[in-house]
Write a structure and sequence with these properties.
Organism: Syntrophothermus lipocalidus (strain DSM 12680 / TGB-C1)
CATH class: Mainly Alpha
InterPro entries: HD/PDEase_dom, HD_domain, HDIG_dom
Number of domains: 1
Strand content: under 5%
Shape: globular
Domain HD/PDEase: 15-123
Number of strands: 0
Pfam families: HD
CATH topology: Hypothetical protein af1432
Radius of gyration: 15 Å
Protein name: Metal dependent phosphohydrolase
CATH architecture: Orthogonal Bundle
Distance between the termini: 28 Å
Amino acid sequence: MTRDEALKLLKRYLKNKNLFNHCLAVEAIMRGVARHFDEDEEEFGLAGLLHDIDYDSTANDLSRHSLVGSEMLAQEGLPPEIVYAVKVHNDAHGLERKSLLDKALYAADPVSGFIVAAALIRPEKKLEVVDVDFLLNRFKEKSFARGARREQMAACEEFGMSLPEFLELSLRSMQAIAPALGL
């Protein structure tokens, strides 16, 4: 599946613009992780872009989230590695994250929202004014961006990146697509 085909598929199932932008942000982060580790950028990008494809239909029953999405992606013929990564990014299912793809998607999901929240509390409301020190300080504040699970972001250590390194990579990746995110 090409990126254009994936975007069309995502637009068919996701109607919430913020959620769509979240998927774009996770795609950018996943592409950054792939470049960092010399992995397949297209594969990582597609996993990030499509990871929440089922969210509109499963938001009221998060125990089904990612199970439905992985089934949808399997039916669309996506590679098993992407299908599995999408399935295991929701840890509610208790499935093992095996590959770098799995682990990166798990950590990238909440970090994107965390970075957006950091940009939105700044007067400029722009990613360009956010830096890693600002993110690290906010990371310690449990009341900031409560929905962004700290332990999930810190799982970047499972694939060999420290939290500061992962935050920097994620921020740079999102800053590169800031206009598309409206930030």
